[in-house]
Amino acid sequence: MNETIVVLVRSIIAFGTLLIFTRFLGKQQVSQITFFDYILGITIGSIAANLSSDITTDAWPYWVALFGWTIMVLIMQKVAVRWRQASVYIDGEPVIVIMNGEIMDEVMKKLRFRISDLQEQLREKGVFDIKEVQYAVVEKDGQLSILKKADNLPVTPSDMKIKATYRGMGTELIYDGVLVENNLKQVNKDQLWLQGQLEAKGYKDITEVFLAVIDATGELFLDGYKDKMENPVDITDFKGLK
Amino acid sequence: MKEFLLYKVVPLLILAIFIMTMKSGDFLKKSFTDEDDVMQYVELVNQSIDDGDWATADKNIKDTKDAFLIVQKRIQFSVEKSELNRMGAAIYRAIGYVDEQDAAGAKAELQEIRFTWDGLGK
């Protein structure tokens, strides 16, 4: 047995299968909404790793295990999407830990959530004074979502009665030196127009541009391959990279 | 149509190739030429031992080893390493017994070869 070739072939099988199965499971599993999703991800990954390198057993049982776990996750996803109660039973629910500025002690005890955990997560959200918080919710994945009291919310253009300009989503026209023709058609522009824009910014050709994005107002963002910065900020203190 | 091909047909085709690779052992261990018929050589060794023809038995057990080396390359992706090692060890022990003209030992090893062979790729 040529172990190198066997492991290589089994790695191709494991890699390809994992890629297809994860695409099959979709984005819900990839986002790992709950702790259980996270464990499922680890388990499936671990089975794939064994399929790839454990040549003391033939590949088939591992592949069947991979298939079995994927099917179970898929069934769980379908059940959770179809029945709300099943979703709550399987994934749990978000829980309010601060209500109207008051910490819910009993809820915290039930969740085995320490006050230091709460403070840490508040700080991660940029809140250093607990008095600023109106509501805090522990989400299904354990992350904290907060709503600050009205007095502590940042001012928005609508607060100031200012009409903000709609910017919309940017559309990539050039990606890595290559023209994205479909996107150019979508924004009702042509290559002649784009060439004019490039020349106005000092680029001779599309291949000199790393990224070009147009926003809803028609404003074009261009970034070339050659950085024009004369004195770029260097944040490394590791001399070996210089 | 293109989307159906890319997202349904191609992945299913790839999975089918993977499954075939993993489950091909039982099929690929079968003989395709005269030189890779492991079980035929085992039976010839058995017959030679019964006839007391140790010179032919010696040639046939070495042919068994060569045939197994050919088959091993084909089935290595779909069988356990330990099974291949077990099969190889039994063949080499049988070579030793035949060399020493020990009929009981050689026959016991031939039985082990048959048993291990039956389980290969299953």
Automatic annotation (TrEMBL), chain A:
Residues 7-78 form the YetF-like N-terminal transmembrane domain. It is a multi-pass membrane protein. It comes from the Bacteria. The chain crosses the membrane at residues 6-26, 33-53, 59-76. Its main location: membrane. Pfam families: DUF421, YetF_N. Residues 83-214 form the YetF C-terminal domain. Signal peptide: none annotated. The keyword Oxidoreductase does not apply. InterPro entries: DUF421, UPF0702_alpha/beta_dom_sf, YetF_N. PANTHER family: UPF0702 TRANSMEMBRANE PROTEIN YCAP (PTHR34582), UPF0702 TRANSMEMBRANE PROTEIN YDFS (PTHR34582:SF7). Belongs to the UPF0702 family. This is Uncharacterized membrane protein YcaP (DUF421 family). It comes from Cytobacillus purgationiresistens.
TrEMBL record, chain B:
The keyword Transmembrane helix applies. The chain crosses the membrane at residues 6-22. Pfam families: DUF4363. The lineage of its organism: Bacteria, Bacillati, Bacillota, Bacilli, Bacillales. It comes from Cytobacillus purgationiresistens. InterPro entries: DUF4363 (IPR025373). This is Alpha-1,2-mannosidase. Keywords: Membrane, Transmembrane, Transmembrane helix.
